[in-house]
Design a protein that fits this description.
- The complex is a heterodimer of chains A (about 290) and B (about 110).
- Chain A has about 290 residues and is an all-alpha fold.
- Chain A has twelve helices and no strands.
- The radius of gyration of chain A is 26 Å and the shape is flat.
- The N terminus and C terminus of chain A are likely disordered.
- Chain B contains four helices and no strands.
- In chain B, helix 1 packs antiparallel against helix 2 and helix 2 packs antiparallel against helix 4.
- Chain B is globular, with a radius of gyration of 14 Å.
- Classes of the chains: A mainly alpha (about 290), B mainly alpha (about 110).
- Chains A and B meet through helix 2, helix 6, helix 10 and helix 11 of A and helix 1, helix 2 and helix 4 of B.
Chain lengths: ~290, ~110
């Protein structure tokens, strides 16, 4: 292969990274993942090791991005060691879906090491973005699987004849906590999930902040209605009110079911009034009353 | 507006459309009875979180292309795969992960 052809083929790396991202996105919608948790946890370190290899093979990133994979690797390696040295069923197989992600990264890194492709800095940025997204999706899936596994284990009767047939629940719970750290780190690298985290000061005054926000929203919606009572604003205000009603209703239901609120009061003062039929052609008045 | 921004508008609108559909289903049930397939609140928040990634002047309206909310969400998820992640605004990874969670929970 000529050098020119090799450079042009670097687009293949971008494609491989995007294929892996699509694979990881597919993991997120897998509804059977609880039972796959042990296999996924067992394979996780392979994914991180291969991604780290590819990351290092690319032209250097600027800023803290260069350290991302190293930090993830520092977190994944001890978890893997802990899983392998403690009670763990020998029959556990690797997860083939995560393995194929790891294999693809290894193949991509090999292409660069063998100088068969030479990605430009722009291509390297695109590959890093796809790798970061892949790691985040995969970490989210593995943690979700581990959490589902723990929840399922709570409802199962222990197998007395074969107590070690399934991995220990506490071990999986511990691994799920470690996975959360890796998931959050990859989310931060990918641009955050929902913006910056609230500060401690904001957290301690959240009740007041919530009340102030509601008051501010109420005043603003009245001003908006006085100034621009058009369909768009009416629609938005009605939908926001309905959302507030839904939140209040969900919180009240949760309080009633956890005995923080008298069930009788909940049934007669909250549920009963809201079962009245909605006004014809309008938003249900109950959604506003509920809050 | 880039091509990815246009896609994001469509994605946000489909999610908000699905939220409206689930909300309408909820209205037809007694208040204490959970809607099969989940609440509309998570979808509403997700739709607006997606819209928040767009320029402030960009309008986003609920759009319905299918009678089933789950189909709407699947269409939105398919759209997320049609552009490289680096082309979307920062924060898109979280939107995709939450969208997939919503799909999984409503499929289960």
């Amino acid at each position: 292969m000529s050098t020119r052809a090799a450079i042009n083929d670097a687009g293949l790396l971008v494609e491989l990274a995007e294929i892996n991202q699509a694979r990881a996105q597919g993991l997120l919608t897998d509804i059977t993942f609880g039972e796959r948790a042990p296999a996924m946890l067992l394979t996780w370190n392979d994914v991180i090791a291969s991604a780290d290899d590819l990351w290092d093979a690319l032209p250097p990133a600027t800023g803290p991005a260069q350290l991302l994979m190293q930090r993830l690797s520092d977190m994944a390696t001890p978890m893997h060691a802990a899983l392998n040295t403690r009670r763990w069923p020998e029959s556990t197989q690797a997860d083939d879906r995560l393995l194929s992600i790891a294999d693809t990264y290894t193949r991509a890194a090999d292409l660069i090491h063998a100088e068969r492709v030479r990605p430009t800095p722009e291509q390297a940025d695109g590959i890093r973005a796809a790798v970061t997204a892949t790691i985040h999706f995969s970490a989210h899936s593995v943690r979700g699987a581990a959490t589902a596994y723990v929840a399922e284990a709570l409802t199962q009767v222990p197998d007395v004849a074969q107590p070690h047939r399934r991995p220990n629940r506490d071990l999986i719970k511990e691994a799920a906590d470690r996975m959360l750290g890796m998931e959050q780190l990859s989310a931060t690298a990918a641009g955050g999930l929902y913006g910056p985290q609230p500060t401690d000061a904001a957290r301690t005054s959240e009740d007041r902040a919530l009340a102030a926000s509601f008051a501010e929203w109420d005043v603003q919606s009245h001003r908006t209605l006085a100034r621009n009572p058009n369909t768009a604003n009416l629609y938005l205000i009605a939908r926001t009110q309905a959302a507030i009603g839904q939140v209040a209703s969900t919180l009240l239901r949760a309080r009633a079911t956890t005995a923080h609120l008298k069930l009788d009061d909940y049934a007669t003062r909250v549920v009963a009034p809201s079962t009245t039929p909605p006004l014809p052609g309008g938003t249900s008045p109950s959604s506003g009353e509920a809050c | 507006m880039t091509n990815a921004d246009d896609l994001l508008v469509e994605i946000a609108e489909l999610i908000l459309g699905a939220a409206d559909q689930v909300f309408d289903q909820q209205r037809s049930l007694p208040a204490h009875q959970p809607t099969p397939g989940g609440d509309s609140l998570g979808l509403t928040l997700l739709g607006y979180e997606a819209a928040r990634l767009l320029p402030p002047e960009q309008e986003v309206w609920p759009r319905v292309v299918s009678p089933e909310p789950l189909d709407q969400l699947r269409t939105a998820e398919r759209l997320t795969r049609t552009a490289p992640i680096a082309k979307f605004p920062h924060g898109m990874v979280g939107i995709i992960a939450t969208l997939c969670d919503e799909i999984r929970e409503r499929t289960a």
